[in-house]
Amino acid sequence: MPELPEVETVRRGLDAAVLGRRIDRVEVGRERTVRRTSREALIAGLQNTAIVRTWRRGKYLIADLDSGDSVMIHLRMSGRLLLAQRGSPRPPHSHVVMGMQDIEVRFVDPRTFGEVVVFDPERTADQVPELQRLGVDPIADPFDQRVLAAALAGTTRGIKSVLLDQTRVAGLGNIYTDEVLHRARLRYDRPADALRRSDIGRLAEAITEVLTAAIDAGGSTLADTQYVDMEGRTGSFQESHLVYARRDEPCLTCGRSTIRRAVVSGRSTFFCPRCQK
DNA sequence: AAACAAACCTGTGCGC
DNA sequence: TGCGCACAGGTTTGTT
Question: Please, are residues A25 and A98 in contact by the beta-carbon 8 Å criterion?
Fold first, then answer.
């Protein structure tokens, strides 16, 4: 569910709500959420620490603790991080709860693909290896046409599949990849290494513009209302979607074709056959 | 190297 | 109302 803009929105909410507050209670209701280590390791790692900084790389949210450790949170498909008053009714699937005096942060995740893990930043390579393998983050890192060209180099794969590859560009998922490719007027199956300089220029610009606008809008909340920020508020960037989930609806760019659906890397892919070449 | 499928889970919406 | 199926924002692993 959540891609870079949603994770960034959650990160900002976490920053505003809990920075410097001491974690005095930790509960793990479902061990699968902490499967990388264990219930005991998560509790020991969080108990009596305070979050001193939050940061994000791609879809990975990291909070640095005053103990010197860090906690990595990945929402995967259905994870949410919710802020609540201590003692208020907990939603189903509240697998991890971090209590800070009168408030608590709840990791809620029906599908249980998400995870929470405390790790030692000096042992990232052993404990959270995928973090080091992430490619350029278009928001957190310097990003322009040259950086993108380097990230796309050396593969004949279709551009959508390459943009979804987190080791090349970190943070784009199924929604934003389709929205970006539409704005750059590129079809999902254009071989990445055959893109012209002008194509890559438009693509880099589209990535920056779409992600920035989506962050400003607080992310995208689809019809099922799965994604909300820490305060439970929905995002509004779905109102700016031009192609995602708009199969058979008129193209908002050209008005002369309808949005088609294809399957790429096993994912639903939406595009305008007239605008995107 | 690349393209697919399956796996991990639960929930929802749809056609019948 | 109930049942079965398709499908869902992600990532990893294994197979052609």
Answer: yes
